[in-house]
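Protein modeling request. Please complete all fields; requests missing the sequence field cannot be processed.
Requester role: graduate student
Desired output: 3D structure, token encoding
Chains: 1
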Amino acid sequence: MSVAAPELRLPQELVDAAVATALAEDLGLAGDITSAATIPAEARASGAIATRKAGVAAGVQLVEAAFKALDAEARVEVLVADGGPLEPGDVIARISGNARALLGAERVALNFLGHLSGIATLTRAYVDRIKGTHARIIDTRKTTPGLRALEKHAVRAGGGLNHRFGLFDAILIKDNHIAAAGGIAKAMAGIHQRAGHMVKIEVEVTSLPELEEALAHSPDAVLLDNMPVTLLKSAVDRVGGRTVTEASGGVTLDTVRQVAETGVDLISVGSLTHSAPNLDVGLDFDPAS
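Delivered output (289 residues):
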């Protein structure tokens, strides 16, 4: 049985808030009218949540929180922790409790589990594709509104790293900042004095001349945007370890190995969070005795 590592657990308040919002959306003003009309209020049930495809688990905290939100006495036995590998048919969790409550929370629990496990699974595929290289896979801010912390958690469960969480925790000077400021030099002039001493500074460049201009201002990282592999390799060589290099733009599973072999430090992939297929998971109740 997998054991959850502390770093793969989300703050419980974030989990509870996400589950509460999702349950309110699903239950509305009248609750689960189907279960109320068909199942006695005191009926109990048990069952198993299993995956129908291979993948990587993520979101098990939300599964537990969803069922316990409607039945505080529900029993949720987690068998595969976030980050754990899954094969078709593997049971991720076993549940038991009030039948109406379990059915009321079922879709919310499975939606979170399937979505986040899909992100972890895709992330793991990218991580596996670049094994043996120096590079690491990171995510972006291309996340579902309201679910960023959960989706970035799923990236970590898949073996990736997180880029900044928002506009507030790091400075990333992108092409539109440069255009609005009137050039890289103007955008970066005095930036080290305006940024707090704990704030990292990264600047996006698309060519070697732009790279040289950015390096003159000693950024903490440079984002090498949409560069062909040959140009990317030249840029990494030009940096020569002076700062962190990040490759970004149009990276796919078919191209990520070539990108990694340029010697770049980080490879950001937006599709990890905006295009990951849902992992097919389901809840089946045990037959009534």
